[in-house]
Every structure is written in C-alpha cells, then in structure tokens.
Amino acid sequence: MTTDDRLKDKLTDSLFEALLLLKTKEECYRFFQDIATVAEIKALAQRLAVAKMLEDDITYTKIAEVTGASSATISRVKRCLNYGADGYKMILERLDNNQVDA
Asked: For the whole model, what pTM was predicted?
C-alpha cells in the first residue's frame, strides 16, 4: 500500500524526520506538548486505541464506551484498517511484537 501523495511535501518530511529523532517516551511527551494541543494528542491516542480494539473484534458499542470515541471516529478508523495505507496494521503489529520482546 502506498501513502497519499497529498501528504508529501518538505514540511511534512521535516516533521517526520523530527519524529524519527525522538528516543524516549519522555522526549515524545515533551515534543508533542509543544507541537500539538492536549486535545489533538488525545484524539490521536484515542484513534490508536480504537484501531487496537477493532483488530481485537471489539464491538463499536464497547469501543465507544471504553474510549469515548464517536461512531464516526470508529467508522473512520475501521475504514483505514480495511482500505487505508496499512499504517495502523503496521504499528499495531510492531507494538504486539515489542510487548512480546519486552
């Protein structure tokens, strides 16, 4: 699967290069606190949690109850899991592998 060419530009490249330089969870907290609002960070974290729960075949009702995500957010994440660039799948697999290795 390929990435959306509308995302690709020098500014976005610089952002992703900066993210790749972060080495610890604390560095991530510090950087994201400066670059995004608390609501934006929480929304991203919520989407990742929703993706994990969808991969675990949890119902929309339970996902909404646990995460507070709207049905629109859950549907969007589900659409990305099924038809997206496989980014969620890639990172969820890596997170699972990391927990096994830890």
From this structure: 0.89
14 and 62 both lie in a single domain:
no
One domain, residues 17 and 58: no
Which amino acid is it at 66?
Answer: V
Q: Which of 65, 42, 66, 63 is nearest to 54 (CA)?
A: 63
9 CB-contact burial (10 Å; exposed 0-12 / middle 13-18 / buried 19+): exposed
SS3 call for 82 = helix
For residues 69 and 46, membership in a common domain is answered with yes
Distance CA 69, CA 77 (A): 10
Could you read off the pLDDT of 71-102 as tens digits, one per residue? 999 999 999 999 999 999 999 999 999 876 55
